[in-house]
Input
Amino acid sequence: MNILIFGPNGSGKGTQGELVKQKYNLAHIESGAIFREHIGGGTDLGKKAKEYIDRGDLVPDDITIPMVLETLKTKGKDGWLLDGFPRNMVQAEKLWEALQKEGLKLDYVIEILLPREIAKNRIMGRRLCKNNNNHPNNIFIDAIKPNGDKCRVCGGDLSTRSDDQDEAAINKRHDIYYNTTDGTLAAAYYFKKLAQDGKTVYIELNGEGTIDAIKEDLLSKLK
Ligand code: AMP
Output
């Protein structure tokens, strides 16, 4: 089983991806995580990629594409969930080309839909509980609104993650994601078109619901 997942930062893509990964026992291949490993290991690739990543830009295709395709071959032999790639049209085309060449099927393409303003609020509204990182608190989501300025679960003190409050950085990431001409959504729509020709199955999920509602919707749409 080979699956692609798309969703903007703030859509709960990580959580839903984890569910899919467990259901089919897939290798979770995340382009961002591969870059972080390279940076941590001080490799040449990591050094080259770091300057782009630090600026919030995409790493050039001539570095990214071979790295991801190689990882699919080595770590994804028994099926993969690919996350964070493709992020533009060239990456989409090269991935599809590589799959065709290898005779591999793309079983599902999942897109979590979420309006840009809501995605931004979700990130900026996130609050971290000092006692437990998993206590959900978000000042912009009614279902998990904190109790005043305290954690809704345990009453602990709350704080923000500095990168969650960096509006310029969030906007830059979303500029890339929501670009339907040559950004991540353009890549997603490339596969949506292939699905119309019966070459893959495209699943759209409404990202505005609760995590559980999205999970249920997702599980009902996967075979
Ligand atoms: P992520 O963890 O997916 O947010 O990725 C972190 C950073 O890695 C991104 O901001 C990009 O700089 C880089 N990156 C990850 N995936 C890609 C990709 N498919 N193409 C280009 N750069 C990428």
